[in-house]
Write a structure and sequence with these properties.
Number of domains: 1
Shape: globular
CATH superfamily: Lipoprotein localisation LolA/LolB/LppX
Radius of gyration: 17 Å
Number of helices: 5
Helix content: 10-25%
Oligomer: single chain
CATH class: Mainly Beta
Strand content: 25-35%
CATH topology: outer membrane lipoprotein receptor (LolB), chain A
């Protein structure tokens, strides 16, 4: 049985969110670490980069080029795998492995004791708990993931830029989909050295609740198995 649901999750996409390896490996995986930056990705920058209003910021030429650079990053991204740590609005932390394949496909395998799966086949985003018969589902186009994992990413065209901050080592970009059917805001943290890389994102849902996802041990070269994104309703855990 499938239930429609509203999505307060990150991820980055997340979305992640936000992306099959043995469950034992997930349980033993260390939390990924974000590369050190000036002030840190979650201290100093978080308050100034968190969007407070609903008005697009007026971008200067340098900021426009920065947003274009982030669009190029997502357009060049074809596949990715790695580790993640998710911090929910109640400060509960979970971790696991993620897999991503553009356009629109990703999977988060949560380690024990949760062992939850969140996966998108490019059309539907589903969440399944191992001890429940129901699955939650929402159209991918109604999540913040749509904006970042589509085939042609153009944030200047498709996103409302709510805030942008840049230092020598870090870019923080807060944005929202222009499509009113995709509610929620996402705040992206990139390190710039040795190359531009997404290290963290925070999704704020319409109720103002925030979910943070940090990623690490990134691998963009090893092939990702397309079968990971095929949702087997009878037993989606068999592809882990």
């Amino acid at each position: 049985m499938r239930r429609k649901f509203s999505l307060p999750l990150a991820v980055p996409l997340m979305l992640g969110t936000l992306l099959a390896t043995a469950t034992v490996a997930l349980a033993q995986a260390k939390a990924p670490t974000v590369a050190p930056t000036t002030g840190g990705a979650t201290t100093g920058w978080a308050a100034s980069a968190t969007p407070q209003g609903k008005v697009d910021v007026r971008l200067d030429p340098k900021q426009i080029e920065t947003v274009k650079l982030v669009s190029v990053y997502f357009n060049d991204l074809k596949q990715m795998r790695g580790l993640f740590v998710q911090t929910d609005p109640d400060k509960k932390r979970t971790r696991g492995r993620f897999y991503l394949m553009k356009p629109g496909k990703f999977r988060f395998d949560y380690s024990a004791p949760s062992r939850k799966i969140m996966a998108s086949d490019g059309r539907l985003l589903r969440i399944k708990e191992p001890d429940q018969s129901n699955e939650d589902a929402i159209e991918l186009d109604k999540t913040p993931f749509r904006l970042l994992l589509k085939k042609d990413v153009d944030l200047l065209r498709d996103a409302r830029i709510l805030d942008i901050q840049e230092s020598e080592d870090l870019i923080v970009l807060a944005l929202q989909d222009r499509d009113p059917d995709a509610p929620g805001r996402v705040q992206l943290y990139f390190v710039k050295k040795p190359r531009l890389e997404l290290k963290e994102w925070v999704v704020r849902d319409p109720q103002g609740l925030e979910t943070k996802v940090e990623v690490g041990d990134i691998n963009k070269t090893d092939a990702v198995d397309p079968k990971l994104f095929i949702w087997e309703s009878a037993n989606p855990f068999e592809n882990r």
